[in-house]
Amino acid sequence: MNANPHVAIVGATGAVGKELLGVLDQRRFPLSRLTLLASARSAGSVVDFRGEKLTVQELREDSFVGVDIALFSAGGNISRKFGPIASAAGAVVVDNSSAFRMDPDTPLVIPEINPEDAKQHRGIIANPNCSTIILLMVAAPIHRLNPIKKIVVSTYQAASGAGAVAMKELETQARDHLEGREVKPEVFPYPIAFNAFSHNSTMDPDTGYNQEEWKMIQESHKILHDDSIRITPTCIRIGTFRAHAESVHLELSREANIEEIRQTLRTAPGVKLIDDRNRNYFPMPLEASGLDDVLVGRLRRSSSSDDGKEVDFFCCGDQLLKGAALNAVQIAELLLPKS
Ligand SMILES: NC(=O)c1ccc[n+]([C@@H]2O[C@H](COP(=O)([O-])OP(=O)(O)OC[C@H]3O[C@@H](n4cnc5c(N)ncnc54)[C@H](OP(=O)(O)O)[C@@H]3O)[C@@H](O)[C@H]2O)c1
Fold first, then answer.
1. Domain locations in the chain?
2. Average pLDDT of 329-335?
3. How remote is the CA of residue 63 from the centroid of ligand 1, in Å?
4. The 33-38 sheet, strands edge to edge
5. Average pLDDT for residues 125-134, to the nearest whole number?
């Protein structure tokens, strides 16, 4: 890999794409060139990057000539069609969609957890689902300390997880609701402002789990290389703008030592412990928004445990950053030659 690669962002005008631009800049990612790609709708629009005006181009089959790294963030169908084209043109694809995550030949990587998997890539590396990343950033360090046998997780997922138009829908509905106008859901099936509903991904009528929940189960197994962990998620969409929250119950292999877990989380990369029982101050989506770190608190031995092996915690992470753009750029950093 070139030490100063030519990077392309596919979906540069979207919720994740805009964050990708910010993260590349903030982390001083070495670049020889940055190409911005989107649909014909936003082709021609101009974006500022490091003092330069970059024009967004329409994504085409010949868009990847000379590109070293292609960061895809335009949905599964675009990734399925153009990911292999980009990779055949010589680019390494880092894909934010779910298109290749469970493909056995595609590594699924969280750089703080399984960076070595990235080396096995055959042209495409997948970025995990945002709720999975936020869960595992906290659960994986605990798993290394005291192996996890079971995870029960409930999510509280922000509107922006469904993209820029969903964020706009929350804003419009909040205004309409407060000003007494009729609220008209368009992106989500139900009103998102001042509401909470089961995640809007496809529900499997046989199992009663939706797609987001299956992603959390299967992707966690793949990233931790451990299919034996029993996982049951309940994914809920709530009316926040950004940063997903998760309430997590773990059953561990040995008796839990809360002080040891606390110490592990204090030093875990990309994790910040906010656990102030005296002030009732714990992680919140508003405080996690715009942060790289996943916040964790409410850490305690579970009152449901009769053998001391169960713990509970609450975590929040900005799913546009660590759940998408930041994780993708960290994967791209793994591809750079060591200096
Ligand atoms: N939002 C999140 O928190 C999050 C987290 C993890 C992963 N992801 C994944 O990241 C991807 C993007 O999500 P998002 O939330 O950023 O969505 P978004 O805000 O709706 O943005 C979609 C982007 O894709 C582009 N696009 C759409 N159709 C296209 C086409 N035919 N050709 C080229 N570009 C096209 C759009 O360009 P135009 O401006 O031209 O329409 C826009 O730049 C999805 O796969 C999503 O599952 C999202």
1. 6-128+324-335, 132-319
2. 98
3. 17
4. 57-58, 33-38, 6-10, 69-72, 92-95, 124-126
5. 98
Residue 339's pLDDT is what? 73
**Cα dihedral angle (75, 80, 85, 86), rounded to 10 degrees?**
40
Between the CA of 74 and the centroid of ligand 1 the distance, in Å, is 3
What is the pLDDT of the chain when averaged over all its residues? 97
User: Which residue has tokens 């797609």?
Assistant: 211
Collapsing DSSP to helix, strand or coil, 137 comes out as helix
Instruction: Provide the 3-class DSSP secondary structure of residue 187.
Output: coil
Instruction: Answer whether residue 100 shows pLDDT above 80.
Output: yes
Average pLDDT over residues 274-278: 97
pLDDT at 299 over 90: yes
What's the token pair of residue 301?
């031995």
What is the reported pTM?
0.97
Please give the CATH architecture assigned to the domain spanning 6-128+324-335.
3-Layer(aba) Sandwich (3.40)
Instruction: Return d(Cα 332, Cα 334) in angstroms, integer.
Output: 5
Domains 6-128+324-335 and 132-319 share a fold: no
**Parallel, antiparallel, or unpaired for β 57-58 and 33-38?**
parallel
Fold of the CATH domain 132-319: Dihydrodipicolinate Reductase; domain 2 (3.30.360)
CA of 160 relative to ligand 1 center, distance in Å: 11
- For 73-147, where are the E strands, in sequence order? 92-95, 124-126
Question: CB neighbours (10 Å) of residue 147?
Answer: 14
pLDDT given at position 1: 87
CB 67 within 8 A of CB 60: no
Catalytically active residues are 130, 244
Which protein residues are within 6 Å of ligand 1, measured from CB?
11-17, 38-39, 41-42, 59, 73-76, 78, 96-97, 130, 160-161, 163-165, 319-320, 323-324
Instruction: Please give the full DSSP string across 208-228, using - where no structure is assigned.
Output: S-BHHHHHHHHHHHHHHT-TT
